[in-house]
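The methods section describes the discrete structure representation at length, but only in general terms. Each protein is reduced to its one-letter sequence and a matching series of backbone shape codes. I believe one specimen quoted in the main text would settle the matter. An entry of this sort, consisting of the sequence and the corresponding backbone structure tokens, reads as follows.
***
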Amino acid sequence: MRKNFQAGAKDLGGSSAGATRCVTYAPDSVAKRDYYEVLGVARESTPDELKKAYRRLARALHPDRNPDDPAAEEAFKEASEAYRVLSDAEQRRRYDRQGHAAFESGQGFDPADLGGLGDILDGLFGEVFGARRRRRSGRDLTFDLEIDFVEAALGTTKFIEVERPAPCDRCKGSGAEPGTQTRTCEVCNGRGEVREKRGFLSAYRTCQACGGLGTVPEVPCTKRGGEGIFRKVERLEVRLPPGVENGAVRTLRNAGEATASGAGDLHVTVTVSPHEIFEREGADVLCTVPVSFPQAVLGATLEVPTLEGKVHMKLPPGTQSGKVFRLRGKGITVYGGMGKGDQLVTILVEVPEKVSRQQRKLIEELAAELGEDSLPQQASFMSKLKRLFD
């Protein structure tokens, strides 16, 4: 029999509030499901799409978030096995050709041998591995930071203001007046969390009676009503390395919610705003420079913008529209400082949309003067066209 595990649409990337999505797994005694079906992606999915799909599933299914739930554990193992195979280019090619039969002679999947999956799971913002260990500490917080294209390419330092919970400086977050005692919370028995059962699923939430501390004060702190935690605005520094990409996440350790038991982290998601001239392709910068017909024919010295200012570039006579020139070392620093990309300059020969009578007459005279010999590409095309239809 197949078992189903349901998780909230928020965890699985669903689009409608309150919706749920079923993740089905098959025990060893039943034929394995298609790996693409397990991850919920198309067969032509990119490595990025595979990674995002696996992250969503791991976030919802990991045993640390679903204790004592064998269905969730098996579903997590199935998703991990699927991603381990499909994330490896060679294994994916074998699977696409032969399916599960490609690995029947192997030793099978060891869920403890996650290989590169550990890095992915470690990046789930503390919500998967170690979530139970840190439950009493402050929660992780998120912040969206927008920077411009040049800042992302060259690197920058930004200062942000974040409002976050922090412990009272008088009672250090305990909620108890200094010099007085605390007692074990009777609601959660000192665990700081309470378990809720929903059918065969269970979930943990912070104990409301003690705020997750596991203790309550005998005499409440006289500052801030004995709440122990208050919200304050802090100015934080975020350093972004050269080449940071759109969607990158920078983590500031211990800059999240703070409690008497410890602080969470702050995850800053970077959004790079589009540039009016430049585009990015890996470590290369792309730009298009329009030139006039005379410049393309006769050649010219162009003033070309780069990330670090203007440079002069020679345009040779007879340059065709669409020709790409490479400015070496004018691109983006490769991650880790191991070199720089280039700037690729595409030439666009601009044709006037409107001409005067005099200009039209001169252009007609030029066309008659040039003849077919000066337009070899056009002559070659007409010759091929003639052969095609003769």
Remarks:
- The two ends are 68 Å apart (CA to CA).
- Residues 371 and 379 are 10 Å apart (CA to CA).
- The longest helix spans residues 70-86.
- The mean pLDDT is 80.
